[in-house]
Structures are given as structure tokens and as C-alpha cells.
Design brief:
Blueprint: H1 3-8, E1 12-16, E2 19-23, E3 33-35, E4 44-45, E5 74-80, E6 85-91, H2 95-103, E7 110-117, H3 121-127, E8 132-134, E9 137-139, H4 146-160
């Protein structure tokens, strides 16, 4: 993607020495910088290196990560009437109950488009980061029917984890 194309879509391009970096517009993740990858692939996030601890500093042990069981959760896709945005989420409860909870604060009608057993939320958020709008909302319409896109992505994730 050329710098001009990035600017047209609200990206801010910075040049440092001989490499380019781009930062997403404020509607995405402010302050997150991305290494420019020219071509059809989206820019990749640059994770800043953690500062080195001072000499003789006590090293804190890493915190244990919470591992979610795929079997106790459901992944769902919720859509909004008249808009291309879909919410990719997970819930330990029934996805219809989650829909009812979300609908309470929404003036527009929400619909449960698709759900499946298993927690695939994190992988799907990473996979569709280039289509991220805000929070857990994405615009998958450039890829086709969002339900078909989700079914194919989950099937691929399941096949890779076997």
C-alpha cells in the first residue's frame, strides 16, 4: 500500500531512517504503531521492547496466564440492522442471553447471526484485525458474507489445532 493510500484511509505515516511506520487512526488503537508492509497484506503491529531492569533490581516472576477452556464457551457473531458491522465475541452463557444483554443498550436492532461451541474469539480477532472497527466490532463485508467467513475461519482454526 502506498503512503497516499494509507493517508486516504486515515492512517498516519511516519518515516524513520529508511523504514516507514504507520499508526492507526484514533478510531482504532491510539498509539499503536505498525510496521509498513507494502502490498496486499495489512501492516503488522510493532511491539515495543520492554525497558531493561536496572542492575540489582528484583525480577518479578511472570504472572500466570488464564487459559480458557474452549469447551465451556461459545463464540458468536452479532450483527446490526442496516450496518455492515458485526461483533465477534465469546460467552460462557447462551449466546441468545448475551444478545439480550447487548440489545439493552442499543437503539438499533441486533441479531445473533451465528454461534458455535468453543472459544475462538482471540484467534478470530487476530485473524480479522485488518477489518477491526472498534472494540469487538468488525466490518467483514469486504470478505463476503460474514457468516460464511466466520464458519470457514473457525473450521480452519479447528483443523490447525488438531
Amino acid at each position: 500500500m502506498a503512503i497516499e493510500q494509507l493517508a486516504r484511509h486515515g492512517w498516519i505515516a511516519l518515516k524513520a531512517d529508511t523504514s516507514y511506520c504507520v499508526a492507526q487512526p484514533p478510531s482504532k488503537r491510539p498509539g499503536t504503531f505498525y510496521e509498513a508492509v507494502w502490498g496486499d497484506t495489512p501492516p503488522q503491529a510493532i511491539t515495543p521492547a520492554a525497558p531493561a531492569p536496572p542492575p540489582n533490581a528484583a525480577v518479578e516472576p511472570p504472572r500466570p496466564t488464564r487459559i480458557r477452556s474452549r469447551k465451556t464457551a461459545s463464540t458468536y457473531l452479532i450483527g446490526i440492522d442496516g450496518l455492515p458491522f458485526v461483533k465477534i465475541g465469546r460467552t460462557a452463557a447462551d449466546p441468545r442471553a448475551r444478545l439480550a444483554g447487548l440489545q439493552t443498550g442499543q437503539p438499533m436492532q441486533l441479531h445473533l447471526l451465528w454461534s458455535c461451541e468453543g472459544d475462538f474469539e482471540a484467534e478470530l480477532h487476530i485473524r480479522f484485525d485488518a477489518y477491526h472497527y472498534r472494540g469487538e466490532w468488525f466490518d467483514l463485508s469486504p470478505l463476503g458474507d460474514p457468516v460464511d467467513v466466520m464458519k470457514a475461519a473457525v473450521a480452519e482454526i479447528q483443523a490447525q489445532s488438531r
